[in-house]
Structure formats: C-alpha cells, structure tokens
Write a structure and sequence with these properties.
about 40% helix; alpha/beta; single chain; about 300 residues; TIM Barrel; about 20% strand
Amino acid sequence: MQLKSQPQIGVGLRHPHYEAALASPQGIDFVEFHAENLFARSELQQQFILDVVDRWSVSLHGTAMGLGSVIPPDANALYALGDLVRASQPILVSEHVCFNRAQISGQLLHGGDLYPIPYNNASLDVLCQHIDIVQEHLQRPILLENLSAYLENIEHEYSESEFLTLMVQRTGCQLLLDLNNVLINEYNKSTQQTFTPLQNAMAFVAGLPADAIKEIHLAGFTPTKINGQYVDDHAQPVTDECWQLYTQTLPITGLVPTLIEWDNNLPDWSVLQSQAQLARAIAQEYQESTMCLEK
C-alpha cells in the first residue's frame, strides 16, 4: 500500500487484540508489529501476516538489535528481518538509538532493554556503522527512535538533537519521533528549570532535522515514579501534554504517519480505535488549517 495525502494513523497491534482487530479494522490506516515477535516461521504466522496486510499497511518496529552496541547486528536477526520485510512489505522499518549487548569475560550478554549511549564521536561512529549494515541488507532507509533514558551522569559531547542530526547526515537514515519519550525525559530532569517540560520538549523537536522525521509515536505512561523517575511504560492513554506536543509538532513535520503506542495494561481494541480517532482529528485540523493558508 502507498501512503496517501490524508493523515495516516496507526496503532500497535499486540497479540491480545489480534481477533478483535481483524474483525473490526475500521478507523486504522496501519498497524505496527514488534519485528522480533514475527521472526519465528510457521504456516499459521504466515497466514496471519497475509490477513493483516490485506487490511492495513504495516510498520515494523525493532526492539532488540541495539545498534549502538559495540557488537555488530546479529546476522540471523538481520536475515529474519529481511524475510519479514519481504513478507509484509512495510511502509516503515524502525529501531532505537540505544545499546543492549556487550561482550563480558568472553560471553555475549543481551541486557533485554534499551540503554542510552553517550552522545559523542565514538558512539556516533559505532551507531552509524551498524545503521549502514542494516540499511545495506534491507536496501532501504530505516527510522531511528529517540530514547527515554533513565541512566544519569553520562558525559555527552553533543546534545541529543545534535547527535541525531549528525546520525541522519552520515547514514541517510530517518527519524521516528516519539513525543512521549521526549516528555518523559523532560519530566525526569531537575525541577529547577526555566521553562516547562512542554516548552523544553518543543525546543527539542525544533532542533531536529524536520525533513528526516517520517513517523511520530504517541503514548501515555503511569503517573507514578519508580526510584524517583517516571517510566515510559505505554500503559495509559495518551497524556494531555503529549496531545498538545503533537499539535505543536505537526507544523514542523507536516503530516507523517502517526502511531498510538500501548503495550501494557492493554485496553479493549475499541479504546485504541478511539485514541487513533483523536490523533486523526488533530492531524485533520492541522491539514485543514494549512489548506486555508494556501488559498
């Protein structure tokens, strides 16, 4: 399927919603899979992919490659991702700016999470090399997502937006802008700030290369701190501030595919459809205002 000039609004399709989603696909333009969940091959799974592709466009979102790790991407995972891309013909393929694997005492260990990397030249070299490997294998650009980071006292040479800009310039990759991650990082910073988290989040978005932003993620989180920090658990409806940030971001990015991300404490499928409709209403209002200005 091709992207249309109308807003493209999607949701993350998780296993408990499969039957309800296939039975009630309306109001959703595309769905996102966590790519690793579909690496195992079976006739049932292949039929499911065909059923999904018949109803929606597909976005593949990787969570395990850890392209900021010193160790290159796993060859088996690369081939599995390539097979999945050919089977689902996704409109988008994405990963995270993070590390998760390391060689310790001769043993390869996978942390099972998304860990932040220092924004410096050494990290940039490693990350760009690995992005190039994946893009060469898939023969297409991938999107890299900004991270919600909980490790403190990391020494950086660049700001996050500067680092992401250099990454885009060197590899030709694109950006998946997760607005909830931006807000979480701002909420978790020192309370002694000149501006509000929303203002700081908007300044971060404005510092990114707008032409490279090809997808937006919207999400909510549980408003309870864990070890003194809010966690991006994707367990609640999109927050009011995230909706506000989305409204303010669209004039910068234009209409790009927008996804409602909800992974824990899953609601009924109809709730995801309602969240998607809220995103669509904001995108359509932006589109209508832009058309009025052009007249």
